[in-house]
Amino acid sequence: MRLGKGLSSIFMIFALAACNDSDELNELDSIRFESATVQNCFDVLRDRNGWENLSDIQTFSCSGDDLDAKGIEEMAIFTSLKELDISSSGAKDIDLSSFSTLEKIKLTFNLSLSSLHLSENHSLTEVSLWNNAEVQLDVANLVSLKTIDAVSNNMSYLNIYNTPQLESLNVMDNNLSTIDISDNHNLRTLHLDMNEFSHINLQENINLETLTIGLNAIQSIDLTQNTQLKTFDAGICQLTTINLNANRLLESVRLDNNPFDQATLDYLSAIDWIDSLSF
């Protein structure tokens, strides 16, 4: 009888332990990635954030030289993902077509990257690309897009056709020589510094408040329609003349190192309604 009671007690202990183990299981326990880098990122972030369900995973970041395009594609299992950050990967081609819920993408220091596909990511509101090997950016028809930061990517092609919500565009330090922003009427911030522009048409960008175009070969610019402009930087260009009479909201203007003619220098010297003006 005593032995029976002992066995009964042991059985109860195992049953309770099994029940507790079952309670601790959740749908993420069965997820296994072929990419060791993605698995490590998943394990670390799951532990840190206390994820229990797929719906909990709305932000995911991963980095590592061994992370390739196939590994990134595996992340599409996160069906509620809104923000994705990929850095220092070895991926040459990144296709995010399967990430239908994605709202923000950040790619930095991906030094093998040469191809990026975002054409199916219609929920995107922010695209951030910094210091990647070479990115040609096509975000045409992404009608929810509001912000593009694409700095130092050796970019020579940019398509922002039909992005009516775009408010901020920063493409500093690339190889761009042309840009069509005629449909971007909501654009308020535009950074085009350190490219290969010789001409920029801003006639349709009537809501522009901040404009920087320094270190380009621009010889002239018409700002008559940009009456909301508050900050303007065109240092180290090829401007020989400039007229700011239509831009009465200007607070800060930098025009240093341009080959202005004497009449323009006299005109700039007489301006007393801009708080900070250098030329």
Tell me about this structure.
- The protein has 279 residues and is α/β, with parallel strands linked by helices.
- Helices cover 19% and strands 19% of the residues.
- The protein is built from four helices and 15 strands.
- The protein has an eleven-stranded parallel β-sheet with strand order 1-2-4-6-8-10-11-12-13-14-15.
- It is elongated and about 75 Å long.
- 30% of the residues are buried.
- The model is unreliable at 1-23 (pLDDT under 50).
Summarize this, please?
This protein is an alpha/beta fold and 279 residues long.
Q: Any key phrases for this structure?
A:
about 20% helix, eleven-stranded parallel beta sheet, about 280 residues, alpha/beta, single chain, disordered N terminus, 4 helices, elongated
